[in-house]
Specification:
GO terms for molecular function: GTP binding. With 454 residues, the chain is α/β, with parallel strands linked by helices. The chain has two domains: 5-195, P-loop containing nucleotide triphosphate hydrolases (Rossmann fold, 3-Layer(aba) Sandwich), CATH 3.40.50; 215-448, no CATH class. Helices cover 49% and strands 8% of the residues. It has helices at residues 17-25, 66-74, 83-92, 96-99, 101-111, 128-140, 157-167, 181-194, 197-234, 248-270, 297-300, 304-318, 329-336, 339-342, 377-394, 414-428, 434-448; strands at 5-11, 43-49, 52-59, 115-120, 144-148, 171-173. Strands 2-3-1-4-5-6 form a six-stranded mixed beta sheet, with helices on both faces. The protein is elongated. The two termini are 33 Å apart. It binds guanosine-5'-triphosphate (GTP) and magnesium ion.
């Protein structure tokens, strides 16, 4: 079995070391923080594919007293081939644990054989302590690469590049907050070149895994979103799950909200997020986890005016696409201008009756609750789902800010809006078929990642 590749991420405090570990291992539990000195101890994180451990990255505290450590190393004259032993002697000196806890912590895994990824933000001129850090790393004799994390401008980047080139075999810019697949692969290829031959097979496997996973995941996500959307379009009240004292409308609202939550949670889990929980994100867009808060529907779906236009177009294109019970423009106008939206879920109530059996004298006619036939519903459900997926796809695990849903159905062309309404109508009138499902999935795929060709 191939050896696991092992690299240590080191550098000055607060330069994004932990963020890089978080992004590359797709682990959002790595401690990242604005306060300098967030990482106090070396901590290892791994990336596995198909149950095989491929890469371990060790996150370390930043250098605190690099110049003093270098002075200690240089206090005795040693030949270049003895420098690594001199670093080992530094680590073996008991009092250094107290005097230089951060340097001991960060150099220990390096001297155990890890490659080095040195991180800088290249924000200011190269200082004496920066040079001391690089010199110490050179003394370790371990394979070394440098990463410029562009978190603070590029004014000094040239100076930094030229300096880093003196100490490191490979120097590149890498932005852990926004790194997409290409730049991650570039970094991994560099690691592959630097790694011990025994570790190279693991990195190669990792590269292949990431390349294959991307299109597979996109397709899978599109299928899941299509299935989820179809379920929401046809969801009727689950009486069994109705809580005591809850009205049927409220129960259906809750069930629709819950279905969205469940879907979002599943996507988070599939992307390896452990911390990004919806209910613990106070800054999330208002009512983010409340699909059925109809007051905010125009934010995700269409405005009343847009709805009227597209509904009109849909009607012209395919006859009476919108069956709102009695049909006709006046009802539609009522529905979209709030008449039905505002009432206590009036538009939720299907006109269908469950059978004359229930209309016996003295027995109240049982209403069927759902599916939701409001014309904005297909847009709102789709826009929120797509937006969620797009955000997940474009962010990295290093980010600790809130997800923001940005997609709005009004950005879709009118032809697309009409298609979506048509699909909803097909579903709600039991005319759904395999071809519709495929068309819906293909459309979602084309919408999900508009910047990419699959
Ligand atoms: N805007 C921006 N912020 C970044 C970037 N990289 C890191 N940060 C932020 O900078 C701060 C420090 O990031 P960390 O990854 O914790 O840095 P560190 O080098 O591990 O810090 P210590 O553990 O304290 O040495 C965090 O608030 C990050 O969110 C970046 O590329 N852009
Ligand atoms: Mg850190």
């Amino acid at each position: 079995m191939a050896a696991v590749a092992h690299f240590c991420v080191v550098g000055h405090p607060n330069k994004g070391k932990s963020s890089i570990v978080s992004t590359l291992t797709e682990n959002d539990t790595v401690q990242v923080g604005a306060v300098s000195g967030t990482t106090r101890q070396a901590d290892s994180f791994s990336f596995s594919a198909d149950q095989q451990l491929l890469l371990t990255l060790t996150d370390t505290p930043g250098f605190q007293r690099a110049r003093q450590v270098l002075a200690w190393l240089q206090a005795e004259a040693v030949a270049p081939h003895q420098r690594a032993d001199r670093v080992r002697a530094f680590l073996a000196t008991a009092e250094h644990r107290q005097r230089f806890p951060d340097e001991v912590e960060l150099l220990t895994p390096v001297m155990q054989g890890a490659g080095i990824i040195y991180v800088t933000d290249a924000a200011g001129p190269v200082s004496a302590s920066d040079l001391a850090e690089m010199e110490i790393l050179r003394w370790t004799g371990q394979p070394r690469m440098a990463v410029i994390n562009p978190m603070a401008g590029t004014a000094h980047q040239q100076e930094w590049r030229q300096t880093l080139n003196q100490y490191f075999q490979w120097v590149r810019v890498f932005d852990p907050m926004n790194a997409q697949l290409d730049s991650r692969l570039q970094l991994l290829r560099a690691m592959n070149e630097l790694a011990e031959p025994a570790q190279q097979a693991a990195i190669e496997r990792l590269i292949t895994h990431l390349q294959r996973r991307e299109p597979d995941r996109m397709k899978h996500d599109a299928q899941q979103l299509a299935a989820y959307w179809c379920e929401q379009m046809t969801r009727t009240l689950d009486e069994q799950a109705r809580m005591l004292g809850e009205s049927p409308e409220a129960a259906l609202h809750r069930q629709l909200n819950q279905a969205e939550q469940t879907q979002f949670q599943l996507w988070l889990k599939q992307s390896g997020y452990q911390r990004l929980a919806l209910e613990t994100q106070p800054d999330w867009v208002k009512d983010f986890n409340q699909l059925m808060n109809t007051e905010h529907w125009s934010f995700w779906g269409l405005t009343s005016k847009e709805l009227l236009i597209v509904s009109g177009a849909a009607g012209a294109a395919a006859g009476s696409l919108l069956d709102l019970g009695t049909g006709g423009a006046s009802l539609l106008l009522g529905a979209v201008t709030g008449g039905l939206v505002g009432t206590a879920g009036g538009w939720l109530v299907s006109k269908q009756k469950p059978g004359s059996r229930l209309a016996l004298p003295g027995v109240k006619t049982k209403r069927l609750i759902g599916p939701v036939r409001h014309p904005n519903f297909p847009f709102v459900v789709m826009a929120r789902g797509l937006s969620f997926l797009q955000q997940l796809k474009s962010r990295t695990h290093a980010r600790r800010d809130a997800l923001e849903l940005q997609v709005n159905a009004s950005t879709w062309s009118q032809a697309e809006q009409v298609r979506l309404l048509g699909w909803a109508r097909q579903l709600q009138s039991n005319k759904w078929n395999v071809k519709s499902q495929q068309a819906l999935e293909a459309w979602i795929l084309s919408q999900s990642y508009p910047d990419e060709r699959i």
